[in-house]
Amino acid sequence: MTVLRRRTGWSPLSNLLDLDKRLSQMFGEGFDDEESTVTAWSPRVDIYQEGDDIVFECEAPGVDKEDIEVGVENNRLTIQGERREEKEAGGEGRDYYRTERFYGSFQRSFVLPDGVDSGNISAQYNEGVLKVTLPKAAESKKQTIKVK
Q1: Residues 6+ apart with CB under 8 A from 27
Q2: Contacts within 8 Å (CB) and 24+ apart, 51-55
Q3: 20 to 30 A from 9, CA-CA: which of 41, 47, 95, 117?
Q4: Yes or no: is domain 41-91+101-138 CATH 1.10.1200.10?
Q5: Which tens digits make up the pLDDT trace of 106-148?
Q6: In 3D, which of 65, 48, 82 has the Cα closest to residue 124?
Q7: Contact criterion met (CB below 8 Å) for 106 and 44
Q8: pLDDT at residue 58, rounded to an integer
Q9: Spatial CA neighbour of 60 closest among 16, 96, 105, 91
Q10: Domain boundaries, the chain
């Protein structure tokens, strides 16, 4: 049987949330007050090279396309947005017993590698995944020189 594992970097928040989840499973749910709830969230991002492009894929399910902003400044890509809580977005008449999904604003920033054409960046949002494509500048693409 093959076990697939997701590669992730070290994240103190995800480690704390995992520890909290495991402790809750062992000892019960504990106190149910709003002050003890962790409200910050940060969507996961995969970064890879596809041909001559560098691609950032950001998981942002439940975020409206209009609530996402992508920008480049000082050689830094910034992805920011907000997932609005359904209670605020017309969820009248709902009495929640438990909410585990994260809501609110997020921001992720990445230093861009040298040779990126920041004037031709494109971004598409489809089925909860934001795909930001950064083409390499023409002068930074690999060239083969024929030896005479």
Answers
A1: none
A2: 52/135, 52/136, 52/141, 53/133, 53/134, 53/135, 53/136, 54/112, 54/113, 54/116, 54/133, 54/134, 54/136, 55/131, 55/132, 55/133, 55/134
A3: 117
A4: no
A5: 999 999 888 888 889 999 999 999 999 999 887 766 667 788 8
A6: 65
A7: no
A8: 95
A9: 105
A10: 41-91+101-138
Lowest mean pLDDT across 15-29, 96-110, 129-143 = 15-29
User: Token pair for residue 2?
Assistant: 């093959």
Please state the pTM of the whole predicted model.
0.63
Q: Tokens representing 12?
A: 């103190």
112/142 Cα distance (integer angstroms): 18
Block residue for tokens 């049987």: 1
Query: What type of residue is 117?
Result: D
Beta bridge partners of 78: 71, 109
